């Protein structure tokens, strides 16, 4: 599919500084705090900072993508505020949540195709906020039954019936990465006063990593951009060798790609300096450690990101500043990451307070 270049935003949709009144949901998206991760910083002699995206209105970094994609469609005239419209997307959950909340605020409907294998909490939350769900079997991207292809066909059928509809297409819609380049990256730069030596981030659509990488590199080409990849994903191999090759598996949701490079990530390859691969036990160690020692409850993708930041910090040596993304909150994975039975069945560590 031809990638659609995003239209330039009239102005960033980030919220004003703390203490100001914002206009509706869109005004509340953005300006999340940058949190110093005390134990990771102490262990490495570096400053390891996490962008607290779990504090977004919809609970994840994907609120930014949802807002960026819908605003881009409105600038194009594909969606018109105040008029009926439908947003269709295939998602592992968080982008669907972000899109649905923004669509609700704009007066649009959402139809979300999501694999049945995603966490019960995300599926239930999507229903709760009014998304029309199309549950799919978990199939590879090469299969027509894959959730992304299902969502595309739904959008095409609605368009053929005369509906005003967009297929959000978060993987290849460059408005996703553009939102992070225009807003998230500059936020990070301003919050750390430009003191950043490296940035680590996992990629599902690649929008967060690509957009922030472009923003940081524009301000300091010396900032190192590191892809954090779970086992079972081929993106680590793609960065290291140029060949997509997946090995192993992971319980993380919404990150990694086994057989393709999304458009948002492909166009940002030149900005990515290296990659690290993180196994589930190492990621879970960070998830559990952050929760019980620092009171920061995050999901598996944040665990991958923090583990990668620690590795990068140790490789760079003391005195550096490494920034990463705390993508979403742990409550969204209670039935998996914090379920002793689920963890034991997969040979994964169970935290003492759950055992």
TrEMBL record:
Domain Tryptophan synthase beta chain-like PALP: 27-328
Entry's Gene Ontology molecular function annotations: cysteine synthase activity
Gene3D superfamilies the UniProt entry points to: 3.40.50.1100
The enzyme's E.C. designation: 2.5.1.47
Transmembrane regions: none
Class of this enzyme: transferase
Family matches, as CDD domains: CBS_like
Claim: Nuclease is one of the keywords in the record: no
Entry keyword set: Pyridoxal phosphate, Transferase
Cofactor: pyridoxal 5'-phosphate
PANTHER family in the record: CYSTATHIONINE BETA-SYNTHASE (PTHR10314)
Protein known as: Cysteine synthase A
UniProt organism field: Paeniroseomonas aquatica
């Amino acid at each position: 599919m031809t990638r659609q270049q995003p239209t330039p935003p009239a102005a960033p949709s980030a919220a004003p500084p703390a203490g100001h009144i914002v206009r509706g949901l869109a005004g509340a998206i953005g300006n999340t705090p940058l949190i110093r991760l005390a134990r990771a910083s102490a262990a490495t002699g570096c400053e390891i900072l996490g962008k607290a995206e779990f504090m977004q209105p919809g609970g994840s970094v994907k609120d930014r993508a949802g807002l960026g994609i819908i605003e881009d469609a409105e600038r194009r005239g594909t969606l018109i505020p105040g008029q009926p419209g439908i947003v269709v997307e295939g998602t592992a959950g968080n982008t669907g949540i972000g899109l649905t909340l923004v669509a609700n605020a704009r007066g649009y409907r959402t139809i979300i195709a999501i694999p049945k294998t995603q966490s019960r909490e995300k599926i239930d939350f999507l229903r709760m906020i009014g998304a029309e769900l199309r549950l799919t079997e978990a199939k590879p991207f090469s299969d027509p039954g894959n959730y992304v292809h299902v969502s595309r066909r739904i959008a095409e059928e609605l368009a053929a019936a005369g509906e005003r509809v967009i297929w959000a297409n978060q993987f290849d819609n460059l408005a996703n990465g553009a939102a992070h380049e225009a807003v998230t990256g500059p936020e990070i730069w301003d919050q750390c006063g430009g003191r950043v030596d490296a940035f680590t981030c996992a990629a599902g659509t690649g929008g967060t990593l690509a957009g922030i990488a472009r923003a940081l590199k524009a301000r300091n080409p010396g900032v190192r951009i590191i892809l954090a990849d779970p086992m079972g994903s081929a993106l680590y191999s793609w960065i290291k060798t140029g060949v997509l090759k997946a090995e192993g598996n992971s319980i993380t949701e919404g990150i990694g790609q086994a057989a393709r490079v999304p458009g948002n990530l492909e166009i940002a390859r030149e900005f990515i300096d290296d990659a690290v691969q993180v196994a589930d036990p190492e990621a879970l160690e960070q998830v559990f450690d952050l929760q019980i020692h620092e009171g920061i409850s995050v999901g598996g993708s944040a665990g991958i990101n923090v583990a990668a930041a620690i590795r990068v910090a140790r490789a760079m040596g003391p005195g550096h500043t490494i920034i990463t993304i705390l993508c979403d909150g742990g409550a969204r994975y209670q039935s998996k990451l914090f379920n002793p039975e689920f963890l034991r069945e997969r040979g994964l560590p169970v935290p003492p307070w759950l055992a």
